[in-house]
Specification:
73% helix; 220 residues
Length: 220
C-alpha cells in the first residue's frame, strides 16, 4: 500500500518553484529600472502578480530579495568564468594575456546580449558597483572575488615581471572599463562625433580585449 503524499504546510503554494522564479525575474527588472531605493515590495508584487505577503514568505525583506536577485545571475557569471579559465589552463600551451582577459569578459558580454533579462541584470550590477555601502561590497565579494582572484593568479603566472599587486590594481581598471562599456555604449558616438556608427558587440569586445591586454601587460 502506497504512502499518502506529504501535506504541504499551511499557505504554501503548489508551484512554489515557478512562483519564486517569477518573483525573482520581476524583481530583477524592477531593481534594474528603479534601483534598490526606488523599488518597493509592492512594485515587485504588482509586476509578478502576487501579494507582498508571498514575497515575504519566500524571501523575507526587500534586501534579502535584492541579494537573491544578484546572487542568481552573478553566481552564473562567476561560475562560467571558472569553467572558461579551467578550459584555458587545461590546454597544453600556456594561454596568452588576451585569451585570459577574453575568458573573463565573455560571460558578462554574453549576458548583456542574451535578451531583456540579461540586459536588466547588467544594469542592476552597474548600480550595485556604484554603491559604497558595506553590504554592497560584501555582496560583490561573495559573488565575484573567488573567480577574480583566480584570473589575477593566472595573469601573474604569465607576467612574472609585473608585481601581483600591480596586476590586481589593473584588474580593478579592467572592471571599471567593461562596466562602462556594457552600460554606456552611446558614448562611443558622442566621443567620435558619430564617426563610428553602429558596431556589433563582437567587434567592441575584440577592441576592448586588445586595449585591456595592453594595459594589463604594460611594463612597470
Amino acid at each position: 500500500m502506497s504512502k499518502p503524499s506529504p501535506r504541504r504546510g499551511p499557505g504554501r503554494p503548489k508551484d512554489d518553484g515557478e512562483l519564486r522564479e517569477r518573483i525573482v525575474d520581476q524583481a530583477e527588472l524592477a531593481f534594474a529600472e528603479r534601483g534598490f531605493a526606488g523599488t518597493s515590495l509592492r512594485d515587485v508584487a504588482a509586476q509578478a502578480g502576487v501579494n507582498q505577503a508571498l514575497i515575504r514568505y519566500y524571501f523575507g525583506s526587500k534586501q534579502d530579495l535584492f541579494d537573491e536577485v544578484f546572487r542568481r545571475k552573478g553566481s552564473s557569471i562567476s561560475g562560467r568564468r571558472h569553467v572558461l579559465l579551467d578550459q584555458l589552463l587545461a590546454r597544453p600551451e600556456t594561454p596568452g594575456v588576451a585569451q585570459i582577459i577574453r575568458a573573463y569578459l565573455q560571460p558578462q558580454w554574453d549576458m548583456k546580449n542574451s535578451g531583456p533579462a540579461g540586459a536588466a541584470f547588467v544594469r542592476l550590477q552597474a548600480r550595485l558597483h556604484a554603491e559604497p555601502e558595506e553590504h554592497a561590497l560584501r555582496l560583490r565579494r561573495e559573488v565575484y572575488d573567488a573567480s577574480v582572484l583566480r584570473y589575477i593568479q593566472a595573469l601573474s603566472a604569465i607576467l612574472p615581471a609585473i608585481p601581483r599587486a600591480t596586476i590586481s590594481m589593473r584588474m580593478a581598471f579592467l572592471v571599471g572599463t567593461y562596466l562602462f562599456m556594457l552600460n554606456d555604449l552611446g558614448r562611443l558616438n558622442d566621443l567620435t562625433e558619430g564617426q563610428i556608427g553602429e558596431l556589433d558587440s563582437e567587434t567592441i569586445l575584440e577592441d576592448m580585449v586588445r586595449f585591456l591586454s595592453a594595459g594589463i601587460s604594460a611594463a612597470v
